[in-house]
């Protein structure tokens, strides 16, 4: 089973795997709560997948130096 988007493509947008996972998890919870996402016709069947697609399409990002992702 191959997962899309690939980790290599995602890491071209966000360098740190830890930051990528944390950002995707937080965004997935937001999507689950609000049922609102930033991309048209997501391919993913899960909230985490949709969040990862948003990151890949640069609809979701972090500011440099904010790797702590404070609440």
UniProtKB/TrEMBL annotation:
<keyword id="KW-0808">Transferase</keyword>
<keyword id="KW-0548">Nucleotidyltransferase</keyword>
<dbReference type="InterPro" id="IPR006110">
    <property type="entry name" value="Pol_omega/Rpo6/RPB6"/>
</dbReference>
<comment type="similarity">
    <text>Belongs to the RNA polymerase subunit omega family.</text>
</comment>
<dbReference type="GO" id="GO:0003899">
    <property type="term" value="F:DNA-directed RNA polymerase activity"/>
</dbReference>
<dbReference type="InterPro" id="IPR036161">
    <property type="entry name" value="RPB6/omega-like_sf"/>
</dbReference>
<comment type="function">
    <text>Promotes RNA polymerase assembly. Latches the N- and C-terminal regions of the beta' subunit thereby facilitating its interaction with the beta and alpha subunits.</text>
</comment>
<protein>
    <recommendedName>
        <fullName>DNA-directed RNA polymerase subunit omega</fullName>
        <ecNumber>2.7.7.6</ecNumber>
    </recommendedName>
</protein>
<keyword id="KW-0804">Transcription</keyword>
<comment type="subunit">
    <text>The RNAP catalytic core consists of 2 alpha, 1 beta, 1 beta' and 1 omega subunit. When a sigma factor is associated with the core the holoenzyme is formed, which can initiate transcription.</text>
</comment>
<dbReference type="InterPro" id="IPR003716">
    <property type="entry name" value="DNA-dir_RNA_pol_omega"/>
</dbReference>
<keyword id="KW-0240">DNA-directed RNA polymerase</keyword>
<dbReference type="Pfam" id="PF01192">
    <property type="entry name" value="RNA_pol_Rpb6"/>
</dbReference>
<dbReference type="GO" id="GO:0000428">
    <property type="term" value="C:DNA-directed RNA polymerase complex"/>
</dbReference>
